[in-house]
């Protein structure tokens, strides 16, 4: 199965492929075919066949087009036993020729692949090659260049050829991530004049010789040109020596000249070849590069020379006629004539090729290495894996160490607690504490037993089963002594006390006796027959509500630990679990006590007890009514469901039959009370039935009221959602109407028989007359529930029926829906104009306030017991609308404030004097416009937008609730209003006009100098009391400049100059002010005279009205907030009126 042949899949390309994708697919398929053909011919076994891909080197033969690549490979003397694509002459779709030799694989790349027009073909070729041979797509590159490129090409064309090849090499290196060795071969050397004549020597086998150089590993750091120049100089030296040898033995002058010419031209291509290699192998930072391994010159064409001995002479290449006929040639005529007489002899020439392919190239693939980026990535992966494995090992060691420590601590704690149990048997307080400790251990090992041991305790270190069994035995002994025995004693006492009463059991006593007896039997031997009878909930309830308070009295006597409640609550669950599973030891019951309790439970209980038993049983059996089924579109929801038990269907199907059965057997019959002996005869069935029906009717009214109180609405999103929500509730057959009609219909439960209904129909007329007499008397809930059972529900819900079924124009629900419809219309209209404050302004014209008042009116018209239920039904939609309105008007108020008030303050007053300590003055007119009462920006904004929501309470401002809307203003806005009130009252009259008061300046008696005020161009001297300086402010003193001139000496004065409309205020603020009363103050200035003496000067300033604003520094300083409402205003209202 390991080598099972995989099922072939359809490898045909999709017709939706693009042309490039289809070409890539076909080339990849071609390369895979070539690889598979080679692997099939490999001698290795099938398991290791893929290793042959890398054991055999792969060579790429590339170069410009028509450079003789295929000719060189054909003349290499290699044998190729396997050829692909023979039907195409060895060529393939990509143009690549595959030659599979015994020692290597040769890939002949056509020169057209390297052209710029075949970029996609080139990319497809090297990507496909990387897919079939991932580690090393190619082991070596053999680059073949025509020698004519160096001889006849210009320097620019040579560098361009090298650059084109280098770009292709870089693309291969970048994609494959390896630095490839490159051998360069210059082909067609026979085209160089004199090459054939130079190497004409039958004594030497030139095909096994090398004309070129292979670089040593020590030369790896040299530049490509330096390496080439060194080796080329050595090669030229060798050729010179060979030239001397050939010249000595050659008699033909023409051939000798050609030999000399070849050497000269060979030496002449050194610079051009150096330029070529420098461009081809230049260094590129942060990028891999091809490795220059060597350069060689080869020839593989048949050659012809002229000579005397036709057996030894090969045909020369075409000689330059310029050299032959040159006048300095001493044997010009002889050469020319002799040449005509010589014969042409052809000799096949494959020079300097075979050894290259046999020895040099296979040995040059060992220097293959990865590029810097690939090596770095591999190094990162290596160290990452090493670090990861080291981290895993260290983590594993630490894990085992800490797991062992954790396990040792666990067993040490167990051993400590077990040893303390045997040492403290007589101490009751410590015994309960130790039971708590053991229960924690048992609970932990029970979790281990059920869910497995946590990894923090290691693997296999904790012996769960054995330890769990031992701890259970210890815990069972403690729980039996400290829980079962005391609990049984407590229950026996309780059962005796209740059973000893000589009167009928009350509802509470009956349930207590039943609960005590059931708990007692659950921990006794009687329950061993059927463990499923154990009710762990009753056991928990009895221990927490009855047993623990009794133990608490003993705790006060310091017989039990202070945390007894925690100990008991923790152990109830574990105790009940083992009791239910049959592992906890049972007590021996008292048969006489059980018999006595059962006889008491067999007596007829109170009707309320019987009804509670019936209700508890039927509520789990009868289905519930879904609230969306009661309303139309599911807008109205409820947190509490209502059972069909409280409808006419419930009476007919369930309650009626259960009451009949309860009358016949009115006691609880189960395994607790004894199922065989409790069959007492009911003495007054009629009274019991009447009581049960009456309790049932009371319960119907109570449950439907609770259901209505739990009503809430699906909240809409956005203003459009709110409009749709209100329209659903305000149409003729709205959800509220449908819902309340369905509720009132379901509350009609008739418990009378058909005969009684007919009898009541006859007396209906008399009943109506009596009710009309008493219609003005207020009806209380308790009075209604005391009426006959036939009319109890009708009378109970009659006010609600009157409200719901009122006609249009007569108030009630119709008027309520009209108010909702008005709100939806106004909201839709305001949504287009974006002006909500004008409509929802808190006045009598406000539709929201009108709806709220209508809602309160409707609720107050109902009896008090219906108020909570109807508040949930009809007040909630108005609150939802109020939430939307609150958010909308809050946004609009903030926008208007920002646009009309804050922008004015920030552009004209903020940062300017007197609102801020600054050299720049604010305009007096702008300040007055901002602070003017009634018509100013601040007070005008309040009057136009907030008159209903913001009121003045004495000297303070506070928000006022309007219906269910409560705009809450932030502290910064309230602070601004308080400051504005203070400023406004000091500089304005009540009608908004400026206060004009007289300001008198009286010099102080202690002044040693005199002074004067220059206001504008007028100078006012400050003199004594008889001729006081009195000016009117702001009429006479509102100037753009005020100067106080102090006369120090006859020819020396000192001045205090202040400019601007607030110059007088700046002058007084520069003094030290002492306020005497509301209308006068003293201002003192101290002047430094030539840094020699400080002279004080003071005046008493009297005002006709008030010292403000001059008597208080920073009087005008106020901060206008950008926002005036608390950000959580809308959110808080939503939470307040939530579901």
Blueprint of the fold:
Elements: H1 19-41, H2 52-55, E1 58-62, H3 69-74, E2 82-83, E3 97-100, E4 105-108, H4 119-132, E5 140-146, H5 148-151, H6 155-176, E6 178-179, E7 181-187, H7 195-198, E8 212-214, H8 224-249, H9 253-268, H10 270-280, E9 291-297, E10 303-307, H11 321-324, H12 332-341, E11 343-347, H13 354-363, E12 369-370, H14 372-423, H15 428-451, H16 464-499, H17 507-522, H18 536-556, H19 564-580, H20 591-601, H21 607-619, E13 624-625, H22 627-630, E14 636-638, E15 642-643, H23 648-664, H24 685-709, E16 711-713, H25 718-730, H26 735-746, H27 754-762, H28 764-773, H29 781-785, H30 792-804, H31 812-833, H32 847-860, H33 867-908, H34 924-931, H35 937-945, E17 950-953, E18 956-959, H36 971-987, E19 997-1003, E20 1010-1015, E21 1018-1022, E22 1029-1033, E23 1041-1049, E24 1052-1059, H37 1063-1069, E25 1072-1077, E26 1080-1089, E27 1093-1103, H38 1129-1136
Helix pairs in contact: 1-4, 6-10, 8-9, 8-10, 14-15, 15-16, 15-19, 16-17, 16-20, 17-20, 18-19, 21-23, 21-24, 23-24, 24-30, 24-33, 25-31, 25-33, 26-30, 31-32, 31-33, 32-33, 33-35, 33-38
């Amino acid at each position: 199965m390991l080598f099972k042949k995989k099922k072939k899949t359809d490898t045909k390309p999709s017709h939706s492929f693009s042309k490039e994708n289809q070409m890539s697919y076909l080339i990849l398929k071609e390369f895979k075919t070539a690889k598979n053909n080679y692997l099939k011919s490999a001698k290795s076994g099938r398991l290791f066949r893929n290793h042959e891909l890398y054991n055999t080197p792969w060579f790429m033969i590339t170069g410009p087009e028509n450079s003789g690549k295929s000719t060189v490979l054909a003349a290499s003397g290699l044998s190729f036993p396997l050829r692909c694509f023979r039907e195409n002459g060895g060529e393939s779709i990509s143009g690549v020729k595959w030659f599979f030799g015994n020692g290597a694989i040769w890939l002949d790349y056509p020169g057209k692949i390297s052209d710029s027009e075949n970029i996609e073909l080139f990319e497809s070729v090297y990507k496909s090659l990387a897919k079939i041979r991932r580690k090393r797509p190619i082991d070596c590159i053999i680059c073949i260049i025509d020698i004519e490129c160096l001889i006849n090409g210009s320097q620019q064309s040579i560098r361009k050829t090298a650059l084109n090849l280098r770009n292709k090499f870089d693309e291969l290196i970048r994609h494959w991530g390896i630095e490839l060795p490159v051998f360069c071969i210059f082909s067609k050397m026979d085209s160089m004049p004199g090459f054939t004549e130079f190497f004409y020597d039958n004594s030497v086998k030139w095909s096994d010789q090398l004309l070129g150089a292979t670089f040593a590993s020590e030369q790896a750091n040299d530049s490509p040109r330096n390496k080439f120049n060194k080796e080329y100089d050595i090669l030229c030296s060798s050729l010179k020596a060979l030239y001397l040898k050939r010249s000595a033995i050659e008699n033909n002058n023409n051939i000798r000249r050609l030999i000399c010419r070849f050497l000269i031209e060979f030496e002449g291509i050194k610079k051009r070849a150096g330029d070529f290699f420098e461009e081809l192998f230049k260094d590129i930072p942060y990028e891999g590069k091809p490795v220059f391994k060597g350069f060689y010159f080869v020839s593989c064409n048949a050659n012809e020379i002229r000579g005397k001995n036709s057996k030894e002479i090969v045909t020369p290449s075409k000689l330059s006629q310029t050299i032959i006929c040159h006048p300095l040639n001493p044997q010009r005529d002889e050469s020319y004539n002799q040449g005509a007489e010589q014969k042409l002899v052809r000799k096949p020439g494959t020079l300097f090729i075979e050894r290259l392919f046999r020895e040099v190239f296979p040995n040059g693939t060992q220097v293959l290495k990865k590029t810097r980026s690939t090596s770095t990535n591999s190094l990162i992966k290596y160290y990452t894996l090493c670090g990861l494995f080291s981290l895993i090992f260290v983590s594993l060691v630490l894990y085992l160490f800490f797991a062992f420590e954790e396990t040792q601590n666990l067993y040490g704690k167990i051993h400590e607690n077990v040893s303390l149990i045997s040492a403290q048997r007589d101490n009751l307080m410590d015994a309960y504490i130790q039971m708590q400790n053991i229960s924690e251990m048992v609970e932990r090992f029970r979790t281990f037993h059920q869910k497995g041991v946590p990894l923090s305790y290691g693997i296999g270190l904790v012996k769960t089963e054995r330890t769990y069994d031992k701890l259970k035995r210890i815990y069972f002994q403690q729980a039996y002594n400290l829980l079962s025995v005391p609990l049984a004693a407590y229950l026996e006492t309780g059962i005796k006390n209740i059973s000893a009463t000589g009167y009928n059991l009350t509802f509470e006593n009956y349930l207590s006796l039943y609960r005590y007896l059931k708990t007692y039997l659950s921990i006794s031997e009687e329950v061993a027959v059927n463990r499923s009878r154990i009710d762990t909930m009753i056991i928990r309830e009895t221990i927490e509500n009855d047993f623990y308070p009794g133990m608490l009295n003993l705790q006060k006597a310091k017989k039990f630990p202070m945390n007894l409640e925690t100990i008991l609550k923790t152990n109830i669950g574990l105790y009940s679990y083992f009791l239910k599973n049959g592992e906890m030891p049972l007590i021996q019951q008292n048969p006489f006590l059980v018999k006595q309790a059962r006889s008491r439970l067999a007596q007829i209980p109170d009707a309320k007890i019987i009804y509670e038993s019936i209700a508890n049983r039927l509520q789990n059996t009868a289905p519930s009514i879904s609230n969306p089924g009661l309303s139309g579109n599911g807008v109205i929801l409820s947190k509490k469901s209502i059972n069909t038990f409280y409808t006419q269907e419930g009476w007919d199907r369930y309650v009626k039959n259960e009451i009949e059965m309860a009358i016949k057997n009115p006691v609880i019959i189960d395994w607790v009370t004894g199922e065989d002996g409790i069959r007492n005869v009911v003495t007054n069935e009629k009274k019991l039935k009447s009581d049960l029906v009456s309790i049932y009717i009371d319960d119907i009214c109570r449950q439907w009221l609770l259901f209505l109180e739990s009503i809430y609405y699906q909240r809409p999103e956005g203003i459009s959602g709110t409009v749709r929500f209100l329209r659903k509730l305000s149409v003729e057959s709205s959800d509220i109407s449908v819902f309340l009609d369905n509720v009132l219909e379901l509350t009609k439960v008739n418990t009378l028989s058909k005969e009684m209904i007919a009898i009541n129909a006859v007396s209906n007329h008399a009943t109506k007359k009596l009710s009309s007499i008493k219609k003005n008397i207020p009806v209380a809930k308790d009075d209604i529930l005391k009426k006959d059972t036939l009319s109890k529900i009708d009378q109970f819900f009659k006010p609600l029926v009157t409200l719901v079924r009122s006609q249009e124009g007569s108030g009630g629900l119709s008027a309520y829906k009209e108010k909702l419809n008005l709100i939806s219309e106004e909201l839709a209209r305001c949504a287009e104009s974006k002006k909500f404050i004008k409509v929802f302004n808190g006045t009598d014209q406000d539709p929201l306030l009108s709806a709220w008042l209508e809602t309160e009116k409707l609720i107050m018209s109902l009896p008090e017991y219906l108020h909570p239920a109807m508040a949930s039904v009809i007040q909630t939609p108005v609150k939802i609308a109020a939430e939307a309105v609150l958010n909308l008007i809050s946004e609009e108020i903030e926008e208007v404030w920002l646009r009309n008030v804050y922008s004015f303050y920030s552009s004209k007053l903020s940062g300017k004097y007197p609102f801020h300590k600054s050299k720049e003055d604010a305009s007096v007119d702008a300040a007055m416009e901002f602070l003017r009462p009634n018509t100013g920006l601040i007070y005008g904004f309040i009057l136009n937008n907030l008159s209903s929501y913001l009121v003045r309470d004495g000297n303070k401002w506070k928000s006022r609730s309007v219906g269910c809307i409560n705009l809450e203003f932030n502290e910064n806005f309230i602070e601004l209003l308080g400051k504005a009130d203070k400023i406004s009252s000091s500089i304005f009259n009540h009608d908004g006009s400026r206060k004009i008061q007289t300001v008198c300046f009286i010099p102080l008696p202690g002044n040693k100098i005199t002074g004067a005020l220059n206001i504008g161009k007028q100078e006012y001297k400050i003199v004594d009391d008889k001729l006081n300086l009195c000016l009117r402010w702001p009429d006479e003193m509102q100037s753009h400049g005020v100067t106080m001139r102090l006369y120090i000496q006859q020819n020396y004065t000192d001045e205090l100059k202040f400019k601007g409309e607030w110059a007088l205020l700046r002058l007084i603020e520069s003094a030290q002010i002492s306020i005497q009363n509301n209308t006068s103050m003293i201002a003192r200035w101290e002047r430094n005279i030539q840094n020699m003496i400080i002279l004080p000067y003071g005046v008493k300033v009297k005002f006709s009205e008030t010292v403000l604003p001059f008597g208080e520094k920073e009087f005008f300083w106020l901060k206008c907030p950008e926002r005036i409402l608390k950000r959580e205003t809308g959110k808080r209202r939503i939470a307040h009126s939530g579901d």
